[in-house]
Design brief:
The chain is α/β, with parallel strands linked by helices and 280 residues long. The chain is 29% helix and 18% strand. It has helices spanning 12-23, 29-38, 40-49, 60-68, 147-155, 164-177, 191-195, 218-229, and strands at residues 74-79, 93-96, 99-101, 113-115, 131-138, 182-184, 203-209, 234-239, 252-255, 260-265. The strands form 2 sheets. It has a 7-stranded mixed beta sheet. Strands 3-2-4 form a 3-stranded mixed beta sheet, with no helix packed on it.
Length: 280
């Protein structure tokens, strides 16, 4: 069934999420199989019009210490922003193995509490940054105030993934209080014009996390790297190893089994402090 679709749509993520979005979580393999075969047309229709847009706020726990080391204030530009939840790293609470970091300001909604390894932080002060501007770029931005779009975002969270759904819902409530500005556009063609809107007195940070896997064409990833390299910006990429191979040698790189976090300074941005949080 998937083989009959265009290559970008041949994703298990899209199949599973479409079934859950339409009918809820199946009780087991038999029900899932019956749904797929009996309701094929409905499922394929959803697959054709939707995209995989997993918006995981817990990824902010690895971004926060790095952002805090950059010259302040920051102008944050997220590529592949979905609903923009990762643009709100300063609005969440963090627990780095009992080392607690509070949101930058109190919020009416319950802030997500992300538990991550203690070694991500050098000190409490290293987990703070000042934001002057933020914006997100996505082929199909999602509005946190749109119940249908949020239902799709929730359908993309796999069952059995711990507190991911709870965290997503809490982050969505935080975002509703102050939704980030999101713009429809392509990561190569529309990035420069959006970056030009950032205030000149702030450090422009172009970042993305788990996005390049959905850019399967190596040439397009290379074009994106060239586009970012032409900007007067700091580039922060949190991606699977191998997907950022077109980046020039980064200033700093931190690797785990699943992700490679790199930071590269482009063109005329001022010097970056040498002290770094150790990110495993």
């Amino acid at each position: 069934m998937l083989a009959e679709l265009q290559a970008p749509k041949r994703q298990p993520n899209l199949l599973f999420a479409s079934v859950r979005y339409l009918y809820g979580a199946p009780t087991g393999w038999t029900q899932f199989r019956n749904w797929v075969f009996e309701r094929r047309d409905e499922i394929v229709t959803v697959i054709r019009v939707r995209r995989t847009q997993t918006n995981e706020p817990a990824r902010c726990a690895t971004l926060l210490p790095l952002l805090a080391t950059l010259p302040q204030p920051l102008a944050l530009l997220e590529v592949g922003a979905a609903a923009g939840l990762c643009l709100l790293a300063d609005r969440y609470a963090y627990d780095y193995n009992s080392h607690n970091v509070a949101p930058s300001r109190p919020v009416a909604a319950v802030a997500p509490h992300v538990q991550m390894p203690r070694e991500l932080l050098n000190s409490a002060s290293s987990a703070r940054y000042r934001r002057a501007w933020r914006a997100g770029l996505d082929l199909e931005p999602l509005d946190v105030r749109d119940n249908d779009q949020m239902a799709w975002l929730e359908a993309l969270v796999w069952p059995g993934e711990g507190h991911r759904l709870e965290l997503l819902r809490a982050a969505t409530e935080v975002a509703k209080l102050d939704p980030p500005a999101l713009f429809r556009g392509d990561l190569c063609h529309d990035l420069p014009s959006l970056a030009a809107q950032a205030p000149s007195n702030a450090t422009l940070v172009v970042f993305h996390t788990a996005v390049l896997a959905y850019v399967p064409d190596r040439r397009e990833r290379a074009a994106f790297a060239e586009t970012v390299g032409e900007l007067d910006a700091v580039w922060v990429a949190n991606e699977a190893p191998g997907l950022v191979s077109h980046a020039r040698r980064p200033d700093h790189a931190y690797r785990s089994d699943a992700f490679l976090l790199i930071q590269t300074r482009n063109r005329s941005r001022g010097p970056i402090p040498t002290e770094r949080a150790s990110i495993g």
